[in-house]
AcrR family transcriptional regulator
Amino acid sequence: MSAAIPITADPGAPPSRRELNKAATRQAITDAALGLLRANGPGNFTAEDIAEAAGISRRTFFNYFSSTDAALAAITHAFLDNAIQQLRLRPADEPVLDSAQAALMALADPKAIAPLAELFTLTQQSPLMSHTELEAWDHCRAQVFAITRERVGGRRGGQDDLYIHALAGSVISCGKAALEVWFSRRGPDLSPASLAELRQLLIDAMALLGAGFNASPSDSRSS
């Protein structure tokens, strides 16, 4: 399963040939890294192995990624960056949590979540990979923080920093919780039905957060 290439910062501008070639190389590297993780398990392959599988030189690999972990983290980055791009497309005056839920709903194809789900299942029992996942989610938290700061501006007075930090951290925690619940139910199942359930859990987690956890799970799904 291939990790989706992140949406560009300016969706209206067509990418240049150079940008397309760079994106294709980056995609080949992350696909190769995921394939080796799937076949060999965490910690059992090198940057040279990834480069060989991707059909590139070792030097080219390090032009794109600093380590094997960074190449794998890019899989999570790709999904989260697409979700963040959808979040940025929402109306500026919409509550951030409503925007977050709508952004996840906009990723309608369950296959879009497949690389994130597979990486999560392959790294659950590996301390070697825990920091890779943490780095990717922290990258997303920083972007949610930035979007919230842009929207909130000075409207909340002296509580701005606390509000923005707490909201960004809560969004990421709910995303992680959805993945953990999904994995506890489905394990390594990556069928379309399982991926659709993961997508819905992510949406439901945002709804629960938006309701202040005062609603039952069934209430959040019906809202």
About this structure: Residues 160-186 form the longest helix (27 residues).
